[in-house]
Amino acid sequence: MNWITPEIQKEFDELDCSTAFREPGQIDDPTIPLVTCDRNGLSKFILGPVELDGANISDASNGTVQSSTGASTNTWAVNLDFDDVGTAAFSTVTKRLFPLELPRNQFAITLDGFVITAPTTQAVITNGSAQITGSFDRDSSKVLADQLKYGSLPIGFEVQSQENISATLGQDQLTSGLLAGLIGLILVVIYSAFQYRGLAIVTIGSLLVAAVLVYLLIAFLSWRQGYRLSMAGVAGLIVSIGVTVDSFIVYFERVRDEIREGRNLEVAVENAWRRSIRTILASDAVSFIAAATLFILTVGNVRGFAFTLGLTTIVDLIVVMLFTHPLLQLLARTKFFSSGHPWSGFDSKALKASGYVGRGQFRVAPSLPQGKALKVSKEAATRQTIAERKAQAAQEEADRTGGR
């Protein structure tokens, strides 16, 4: 106690912890006494010279106190382990403090010049393992254990730029993003109605189902995982409209190709589905792999874009398989679509259909010019099945050999 001089006592008396302030990066001399406060500004201390450095703490963790029988209690504590130097120093300190009365039997642990805890010495500890108990819960004991284990990180911050942003900017950006998405959706609907006539109801219905699924998934993730939709995420949702519509176009055009070959609508839908699903799976796989790569390798807003793009890609596949295809199967059985109504999107005359009659022969629609008919015939020939091509080759061989 001989290091408590009148100057230090005066400094202690005049210290007001409610206004205590330390300069950033200020370093205290560990060889002289320190007058300081705790983190909360509720208590002030006169501390002697440093006797044990934080570098001598090998580990710190939180956990519940074990009873004498080894059973775990509901009391939380912080456990300390010292290295060899720390074990010897802490043993010396506890031997000196243990016989003393409060508050002289306390030792303080400081971080950045403030006291973070000041436990009393309740035993002489010579084995290098100590335990700090008190009014801890799980969180507070974890915070103290981390402070003791990692200390003050030597990180400084330098202002590179400063900008004042209006509080309404986020709302303006969100409004602009949603408006852009709405415009894109309207353009998609107009294109679908112009290009596919009655099939536009399939496109619109599928987009609505996809939108509901995405909304429910984002709401669930927000509730369970605290997910928040950013502007980059909104951009990913807008891009997903194109991804989803692309799947519809692949499917619809394949159905039209089947009708051009002379098949009725129900058969055309089934054949087109078997062929187009492979293309759709490949396209969605590429989109998902790209989104996953961006999510893993990037940070910040790009991850938000990648997450929503990957999520909507999965939703697109679900909607096409479980809604779009079944809906088109049902519509193919209705008179409006199966009869090839001009507004159905499957008008055989508008599609200039040609019929395959077997053996490599095609019934060409009479309304087609001769050159166009030949082109359609050749195009349809490339879509023969393996069995049909084998039969055609056998027939050609028989014709060439005269049936021998």
UniProtKB/TrEMBL annotation:
<dbReference type="GO" id="GO:0006886">
    <property type="term" value="P:intracellular protein transport"/>
</dbReference>
<dbReference type="InterPro" id="IPR005791">
    <property type="entry name" value="SecD"/>
</dbReference>
<feature type="transmembrane region" description="Helical">
    <location>
        <begin position="174"/>
        <end position="194"/>
    </location>
</feature>
<keyword id="KW-0812">Transmembrane</keyword>
<feature type="domain" description="SecDF P1 head subdomain">
    <location>
        <begin position="49"/>
        <end position="155"/>
    </location>
</feature>
<feature type="transmembrane region" description="Helical">
    <location>
        <begin position="305"/>
        <end position="328"/>
    </location>
</feature>
<keyword id="KW-0813">Transport</keyword>
<dbReference type="Pfam" id="PF02355">
    <property type="entry name" value="SecD_SecF_C"/>
</dbReference>
<dbReference type="InterPro" id="IPR022813">
    <property type="entry name" value="SecD/SecF_arch_bac"/>
</dbReference>
<feature type="transmembrane region" description="Helical">
    <location>
        <begin position="201"/>
        <end position="223"/>
    </location>
</feature>
<keyword id="KW-0472">Membrane</keyword>
<keyword id="KW-1003">Cell membrane</keyword>
<keyword id="KW-1133">Transmembrane helix</keyword>
<dbReference type="GO" id="GO:0005886">
    <property type="term" value="C:plasma membrane"/>
</dbReference>
<keyword id="KW-0653">Protein transport</keyword>
<feature type="domain" description="Protein export membrane protein SecD/SecF C-terminal">
    <location>
        <begin position="157"/>
        <end position="332"/>
    </location>
</feature>
<dbReference type="InterPro" id="IPR055344">
    <property type="entry name" value="SecD_SecF_C_bact"/>
</dbReference>
<dbReference type="InterPro" id="IPR048634">
    <property type="entry name" value="SecD_SecF_C"/>
</dbReference>
<feature type="transmembrane region" description="Helical">
    <location>
        <begin position="229"/>
        <end position="252"/>
    </location>
</feature>
<dbReference type="Pfam" id="PF22599">
    <property type="entry name" value="SecDF_P1_head"/>
</dbReference>
<dbReference type="GO" id="GO:0015450">
    <property type="term" value="F:protein-transporting ATPase activity"/>
</dbReference>
<feature type="transmembrane region" description="Helical">
    <location>
        <begin position="280"/>
        <end position="299"/>
    </location>
</feature>
<keyword id="KW-0811">Translocation</keyword>
<dbReference type="InterPro" id="IPR054384">
    <property type="entry name" value="SecDF_P1_head"/>
</dbReference>
<protein>
    <submittedName>
        <fullName>Unannotated protein</fullName>
    </submittedName>
</protein>
